[in-house]
Amino acid sequence: MSHIIAPSVLSCDFANVQRDVEMINNSEADWFHIDVMDGVFVPNISFGFPVIKAIKRHAKKPLDVHLMIEDPDRYVEEFAQAGADILTVHYEACRHLHRTIQLIKDNGMQAGVALNPHTSVDLLENVIMDLDLVLIMSVNPGFGGQKFIENAELKVEETKHLIDHHGSHAKIEVDGGVNLDTGKRLLLAGADALVAGSFVFKSADPTKTISDLKNL
Ligand code: DX5
Ligand code: ZN
User: Is 90 in the pocket of ligand 1 (CB under 6 A)?
Assistant: First the structure.
């Protein structure tokens, strides 16, 4: 199967969300990447349930929701109700990560764990069999349009090794600073899914840019 492209709605035009959702519907993109920020775990606030529900009403592809929030257990059920298909929490934001992963699955969603740039891949060893997705952050979370951190490529290789070693079915997604150059290298390193925000939405032709990423 070819790799997955998940445009990040964070970089869309919020005055024209429905137009941008339709653009993604009609493109070669596979998922909607939805970034939720609480102003505590990361130094930025994005959007919450009303916006996600509005996107869900129009989206014809799965919602890949990336929670950059402290103690996400409090809201797992509500994200399921809002329409999340994949729910990813940060390793650094969960005191009882195993419980959080089970809670996500009990609510009928696929479970992902994201790692900040400083967090080692081997910390996932004891949950890798429970995961549907590992999200490698290739920028410090909080903002679109940041510079790609090169070490992410090595972390993708390490994650691939961990997954293969244990026989896990988890996919590897990478988020931050993805363009055609970094995207190609990440795919060679073993990535299954690429998130792209500013590279898609700041381009002259977002539909074509998604196609270019899909055909890497
Ligand atoms: C960053 C978010 C990303 C962001 C990526 O905290 O998690 O999903 O939208 O944006 P780009 O692709 O512009 O780095
Ligand atoms: Zn994200």
Answer: no
Among candidate residues 182, 199, 113, 197, the one with its CA nearest the CA of residue 148: 182
Question: pLDDT at residue 64 above 90?
Answer: yes
pTM of this prediction?
0.98
Is 192 a residue of the active site?
A: no
The answer to whether the CB of 197 is under 6 A from ligand 1 is yes
Find the 30 Cα to ligand 2 centroid distance in Å. 15
- Which candidate, 109, 159, 154, places its Cα nearest to that of 132? 109
For 144-186, write each residue's pLDDT tens digit: 999 999 999 999 999 999 999 999 999 999 999 999 999 999 9
Task: Please tell me the distance from the alpha carbon of residue 97 to that of residue 99, in angstroms, as a whole number.
Answer: 5
What is the predicted pLDDT for the residue at 52? 98
Residue of 24, 67, 175, 181 best suited for mutating to test ligand 1, as the one with most atoms within 8 Å of CB: 175
Please list, residue by residue across 58-96, b when 16 or more beta carbons sit within 10 angstroms of its beta carbon and e when fewer do: ebebbbbbbbbbbebeebbeebbebbbbbbbbbbbbbee
Catalytic residue among 35, 38, 132, 212: 35
Domains and CATH numbers, the chain: 4-214 (3.20.20.70)
Counting DSSP H helices and E strands in the chain, the numbers are 8, 8
User: Is ligand 1 within 6 A of the CB of residue 175?
Assistant: yes
